Amino acid sequence: MSSDSRLLMLNADAVAAYLQPDDVLAAVHEAFVLHSEDKGRVFPVIREQLSTGGVFGIKAGDVQSEGLLGFKAAGFWPSNRARGSEPHQATIMLVDPATGRPVCIIDGNAITTTRTGAAGALGLQQLARRDSTRLCVFGTGVQARAQVGHALRVLPHIQYLRYVSVDRKRDEDFENHFAGRVQVECAIDADAAVARSDVIITATPGGGPLFNAEAVQPGTHLNCVGADTKGKRELPEGLLARVRLVVDDRVQSRQIGESQWAPETPCVEIGDLLTGKATLERAQDDITVFDLTGLALQDLTVARLVHDKARTGGKGIEIHWPW
Predict the structure, then answer these.
(1) Whole-prediction pTM value?
(2) Do the first three CATH levels of 6-111+297-320 and 129-294 match, i.e. the same topology?
(3) For the chain, percent helix, then strand, then coil, each to nearest 5?
(4) CB of 195 closer than 8 Å to CB of 219
(5) Cα 289 to Cα 152, 197, 200, 258, distances in angstroms
(6) H helices within the chain, ranges in order?
(7) Residue 317's beta-bridge partner residues?
(8) What is the pLDDT of residue 4?
(9) Can you list the residues of the chain whose pLDDT is less than 70?
């Protein structure tokens, strides 16, 4: 039995200290490239409803050539809001592929939020019109803020931000979060907000269509985040037939993303755009959609980034873990 093995544990505060936007963007870019080049594997997703009203899932994968192996156990527990806590919960474990021993256990909430925001940014860089000035976001929660924050970094011409809250009422915390960076307005009419926007981000729990398909104007780009489970959707019936669709993973999108509602829709994986395996020449009037279901490889490359920094940065708790 080895007696010198150690296990590093990183809580939310430790993780947040190492999540710099440019580093995360690079790590997520790497994940999509690995996926495109068949160097990183994505294992079948587990996503199940619980009797408690929550949803529990596991996303796992590896990069054999780099000794990277692990998984994220995560889900959505809406009743947490009544407890004053975050409904999204996630924990990531990195594993030594040679022995199966755990190397690091990481609070995955901030990683999930940030890597999804970074994935959205890559979609905007690849697909949104460079001259976009008007952004509309559905949702005002943690992920909506992350998506908008990344959007403002990669689309510097954005001047107007309209947001659609679940109750159509103003969210002062959300407005204050972006005050001074962009003109912010609470939208009462969802279709009108969509029709007046160049970029639309949907970051909701995916309970159903958020607007009418006819509201989406030529030239619009949409980043869709909320459909990550069978039965979830944010886009209206018929819209995918009008768009040029990009996904993070073709199989996942058809199983748990927006493509589950129109699985015959032709699509391109974003990793193939990043590596040049595929091209998408965007005409001015094209409507484009990036469907984000979330890849295990994104979690693993960002978790490795955090783990590497923590080993030299001194944060976290290291415990004796003999085997």
Answers:
(1) 0.93
(2) no
(3) 35, 25, 40
(4) no
(5) 18, 14, 9, 10
(6) 12-16, 21-36, 109-127, 142-154, 172-178, 190-195, 250-256, 270-275, 296-313
(7) 9
(8) 75
(9) 1-3
- As a whole number of angstroms, the distance between CA 211 and CA 43 comes to 33
40-67: per-residue pLDDT in tens? 999 999 999 999 999 999 999 999 999 9
pLDDT the model gives residue 3: 60
CA angle centred on 176, ends 131 and 122, rounded to 5°: 35
Q: Please say whether the beta carbons of 256 and 232 come within 8 A.
A: yes
Map out the domains of the chain as residue ranges: 6-111+297-320, 129-294
* Third-level CATH fold of 129-294: Rossmann fold (3.40.50)
**For the chain, counts of helices (H) and of strands (E):** 9, 16
pLDDT of residue 169: 96
**Amino acid in position 44:** P
Type of residue found at 129: R
pLDDT tens for each residue of 173-222:
999 999 999 999 999 999 999 999 999 999 999 999 999 999 999 999 99
> How far apart, in whole angstroms, are the C-alpha atoms of residue 189 and residue 173?
21
CATH H superfamily, domain 6-111+297-320: ornithine cyclodeaminase, domain 1 (3.30.1780.10)
The β-bridge relationship of strands 183-186 and 160-164 is: parallel
Q: What is the pLDDT of residue 313?
A: 87
For the packed helices 296-313 and 21-36, what is the interaxial angle rounded to 10 degrees?
Answer: 140
Could you tell me the strand order of the sheet in which 288-291 lies? Answer: 183-186, 160-164, 134-138, 199-202, 221-224, 288-291, 244-247, 267-269
Q: How far apart are alpha carbons 133 and 136 in whole angstroms?
A: 10
